[in-house]
Task: structure prediction
Amino acid sequence: MASSLPAYSGYKHFQTTSPAPWIAHVQINRPQKLNSFHEEMWLELRSLFNALSTDSSIRSVVLSGAGDRAFSAGLDVVAASTTETLQGGKGADVARRAAGIRRHILEFQECISAIEKCEKPVICVLHGISYGLAVDIACACDVRIVARGARLAVKEVDIGLAADIGSLSRLPKCVGSMSWVKEVCLSAREFGAEEAERVGFVSRVVEDKEKGIEEAVKLAGLIATKSPVAVQGTKEILNHARDHPVEDSLRYTAIWNSANLQTDDIKAALFSTMKKTKPEFAKL
Result:
């Protein structure tokens, strides 16, 4: 049974519990609106993942959506249509209106990027409707699991815009086929769990949301048994490698490990291997 995490009880739109030691389970908690996002929610998301990033009692994170119908239906377009920034100030010229919109988009991007920048590995469980912003969020996670019957789509062209919060930047780096990426982004067509697995967008397909959360918690638990120095370093270096040439990444790895190879976690891991015991690592 999951235990409460009092430090995260103040978030209105996200429920955070601990299903096992060192693990946080974050649920997008607006099921009555299919977990669709408005501005207050993405600002909360940034605050929540920034807090998880530096919480030494958390070593891995599971992210899912509350309710049976949707991980997230994406942007709450009704709420977005009333956003003052997007409406533009009366009498403002194009440059000034554009400056306000640009700042708004950059802040929104930063909120979703907080998942990717979180020092802890984040495992996403997709189910049901997973449209638009749901794909942005999933792309920012480290591992993706999907339930059968999920309906995914990069939906933005259907509402008259090019996706601007992360899908067009991250999705090509999550899968191996630019042709497939362009197909789904240009057409906004739905794709299912099996297709998502076939192109490499997700690690595995499970029978339903409950099984997905079970699998995600199991994986998060395994990760949590490892050295937090090693895990956080591995995430950092993998993300750097994705975005840089091999030579630059090797140099970055050498600099990173010049400090982290001095950790006591290496001694603890080697000693436990020799003694055939389970290692214990200090908080980070």
Remarks:
- The chain has two domains: 3-224, 228-275.
- The domain at 3-224 is CATH 3.90.226.10 (2-enoyl-CoA Hydratase; Chain A, domain 1).
